[in-house]
Amino acid sequence: MEVCSVTAPATVEEAEAIQDALRSRLDLTGPGPRDPALVAGVDVAYSDDLLAAAVVVLDAASLDVVERVTVPGRPAFDYVPGLLAFRELPSLVEALERLTVTPDLIVCDGYGLAHPRRFGLACHLGVLTGLPTIGVGKTAFVGSFEQPGRERGAWSDLLLDGEVTGRVLRTRDGVKPVFVSVGHRVDLETACRHVLALTPRHRLPETTRAADRLSRTALKTAMAGSP
DNA sequence: GCGACAG
DNA sequence: ATCTTGTCGC
């Protein structure tokens, strides 16, 4: 599939300016895909100065793997909270370009609209691909919230400056919740429906789990190849 | 001013 | 993210 390339900033100020500029291209119109056929998970694994990006496309109904792509690389930007996209997206975009199918939804590791400048990784990838994206974070980043009820499906608002920017969603009974926020072309309600559909037996979406495993094994391969 | 801070 | 053993529970 076709994907716009990532503009590589040299400084934090430049990176923030890029986010502010791209934010105007965000489509926050819902509801987004109601019944996606293909859902993709993306993730990146690191080791010193090496990394491996991975994309896994699943059949949304069966959760079977349809396609997998990995790309070895080097981090192009240090990790700075709020600028994660500049570290992970260059390689992820390469991986997505090698996909022979086009997913109907991309599930990202991290945040989307729930971000200091309202433009997290999921928003950024959405604008570059033009595809619906959502962000699923494992830990708190920005925003305040109350603990949701203990049962799967329970949720609470993730508030930032008095605005609802996401949801703290319980995907398994009595298990630590995840942080869901919209990326591009999907509304929050629909995003949470998809996250629940992707978590029939684990806390994290099957897309995230599959991409995480793939990126780690690809990293080991990359380390063996260029030591 | 001092911490906190997606992955 | 990554460094790491055993252990409790479905």
From TrEMBL:
<feature type="site" description="Interaction with target DNA">
    <location>
        <position position="79"/>
    </location>
</feature>
<dbReference type="GO" id="GO:0004519">
    <property type="term" value="F:endonuclease activity"/>
</dbReference>
<dbReference type="InterPro" id="IPR007581">
    <property type="entry name" value="Endonuclease-V"/>
</dbReference>
<comment type="similarity">
    <text>Belongs to the endonuclease V family.</text>
</comment>
<feature type="binding site">
    <location>
        <position position="109"/>
    </location>
    <ligand>
        <name>Mg(2+)</name>
    </ligand>
</feature>
<keyword id="KW-0540">Nuclease</keyword>
<protein>
    <recommendedName>
        <fullName>Endonuclease V</fullName>
        <ecNumber>3.1.21.7</ecNumber>
    </recommendedName>
</protein>
<keyword id="KW-0234">DNA repair</keyword>
<keyword id="KW-0479">Metal-binding</keyword>
<keyword id="KW-0227">DNA damage</keyword>
<keyword id="KW-0255">Endonuclease</keyword>
<keyword id="KW-0963">Cytoplasm</keyword>
<dbReference type="Pfam" id="PF04493">
    <property type="entry name" value="Endonuclease_5"/>
</dbReference>
<feature type="binding site">
    <location>
        <position position="43"/>
    </location>
    <ligand>
        <name>Mg(2+)</name>
    </ligand>
</feature>
<keyword id="KW-0460">Magnesium</keyword>
<comment type="function">
    <text>DNA repair enzyme involved in the repair of deaminated bases. Selectively cleaves double-stranded DNA at the second phosphodiester bond 3' to a deoxyinosine leaving behind the intact lesion on the nicked DNA.</text>
</comment>
<keyword id="KW-0378">Hydrolase</keyword>
